Structures are given as C-alpha cells and as structure tokens.
Amino acid sequence: MRFVSIRHAQPGMKVGRTVFTEDGKVLLGVGMTLTERLIQGLVRSGVDSLYIDDPRTEDIVVEDVIRPETRQVAVETIEKTVKQITNSNKLARKISLKEMGLHFQQAFGSILDDLMQNKQMVTHLANISTHSPSLYHHSVNVAVLATAVGMSIGYNRSQLIELGVGAMLHDIGKVQLPAELLQKKERWNEAEMEIAKQHCMLGFNLLRKEHDISLLSAHICLQHHERLDGSGYPQGLKGKNIHEYAQIVGICDIYDSLTSPRPWRKRYMPQDALEYLMGAGGHLFEHRLINAFRSHIAIFPIGSSVVLNTGEVGVVCRVDPDYCHRPTIRIIKDGRGNDVRISYDLDLKENLKLFITGFEDDQLFSISDLTGTVS
C-alpha cells in the first residue's frame, strides 16, 4: 500500500484505505478499482490524495489507529450536532441538544476503546488523518492525537474522556459564525479573523450549559487558542492560567491544521509542522507537552513515497519509534527515475550515508515559511 496524490491515480488501481466524504460517509471502500469516472468524482469532492495497493507494496500495511466505523460514527455525531445547533426552530433545537453530552461520550468511548486496544500503534501514530479539511474530520483527528498524548502522560479514563470529548468539540463554536465566513475559500482578512475568534467563547457558552459535558471539556473549547506568553485569545491568558487539556488540544489542533490542505494552501510536511511546534516550546506551549506530542508522530508515515539523496524513490515500509527520521524504505525507482526490476528494502539506520530529502510528490505540500502562519 502506498500514498499517492490524486493526480497520480490511474484507472485500474485499487483503493488501499477507505475514502470518506466530508460528513463521514464512505466514498470509496477498500479494494475498489478506480475508473476515470471515480477519479474525477474524487477530484470534485476535494480529495487530493489516497492510498492505493500495488504488487510492489502489497505487504506494506497502513493500519487505522481507529476503525473506519468508529470514525464514521464520530463524524456523524458531530455532523448531527452541527445541524441541531443551526436548527432555526429554537424549541426543537433545545430538545435535540438535551442529550448531546451523552452522544459525544458514547462516540468518544468507541475512539478510546480502539486506542486502548491498539496501544502499540498509539505509541507512534503514523497515519490518523483522512487529510480532509472539514470541521468533522479535523475534530476527530484532534481527539485521537490529544488522547494519545493524554495516555502517554498517564491520564486515567475519566481524564481521557474529559480531554477527548473537549477535543471533539473544540471548534463547535464555529457553527455559530456567519455562514459567508465559513464558506469563504480565501484566507480570512484581519477583520474576519477578529470575528472568527469569537468561536471560542461561543462554543464555551454552548457547552457549559449542557448536561453530561464536563466544565473542563467546555474550557478546552474556550482556551485552545490561548498561549503561554499571553499572545493567544480570547482572554490573553498566560502560563498556568491555561488548563493543560487546552494546551494539548491547541498543539494537536495546530498540527492537524498544518498537515491538512486548505483552499488557499497545500498541506505542510509533517516534519515542517513538528519543527514549528518544537520552536513554540516554552513560549506558546509547555516543552513537556510538545515532547509528549512529538513522541507519537511519525515524520515519514508508513506508505508515503520519499526521495533519497541518491535520487532513488521508495515507500516507507517500517518505522522504528526510536529512530523515526531513519525508517526502512522499499526502493521502487532508481536514481534516474526508472522503475527497478525487483524492489528491495533499505534500512536507513544501517545505511548512514543515505537520507531522505523529501517526498516524491512535493506538489502535495506547501514549502512556504511557517512563521506567522498559526496564531
């Protein structure tokens, strides 16, 4: 299995991982054969990449840290809640939101159960994202990442539920922003950004009134854009005044946002997003939380196609958590760009003169400076 951009997808290729719509429905299932019509449908749906199977990489398994059905239920729970919040009938909205907390606890409970059963994968998350820019998938991705961090620093189940439910709902206030702002395909200007910042308080005011949602979960919504040095919003809090849960979600929110495409930019490479976060340690987030997060992220995810300093192209087939920058590579093209007759594996830990210079399809990624990109 390997990760390819949609522009490299060809009829006859088989889908390696489930492709979801923005609202959590299955668009293409594993094993489906691509046709020109299906590829064009993916393009129209905003899918810029997918996993495919081929004979050279058929033994490379990219496992989901949570089951597709778990993700689907979580995304549908968020979608349903969004529709309830935006229901113009105030009485119907009040009645339908009455059990919101319970529904989110159930949806996150399934996520947590999957993560607890896949502790080996959780120690080094290689592939959790659908790479969808939608609010729904972003919220699930952030919940998975935040829970992994919470598990690593020893949170008990009750704390993980508070953290995870808050992470799933951290952006829920955005649905109360003006529709034209949410639908805009360009970056927000300064005035629009000031309006968008209201989503923290809007979400907090919604969640703190709901039964079965912890006040600490609601504070994640309020504080996930606050920063240690006081440069965040909405209250400009500093240091210990920012809850640890909110810091964790803030870190995960930035990472998933940077590594997912936006209408105005391509995704950033994982190593670039991590580099940005490492630079934020000590002044935007606590160093120990950044380090806990970093220990769970694969810089070069399994299944990604990378280029070596020799010009050879290969697919990442194994990642050693202790040497995440030197994975094992399945070589599929020589230094001149020609397919090799027989693919073979190179362990970069044992070949110290070799190193990865980037991803094969660098057009998937933004190479602009990250300075000032994230609040």
UniProtKB/TrEMBL annotation:
InterPro entries: HD/PDEase_dom, HD_GYP_dom, HDIG_dom. PROSITE patterns: HD_GYP. Gene3D superfamilies: Hypothetical protein af1432. Residues 113-309 form the HD-GYP domain. CDD domains: HDc. NCBIfam families: HDIG (TIGR00277). This is HD-GYP domain-containing protein.
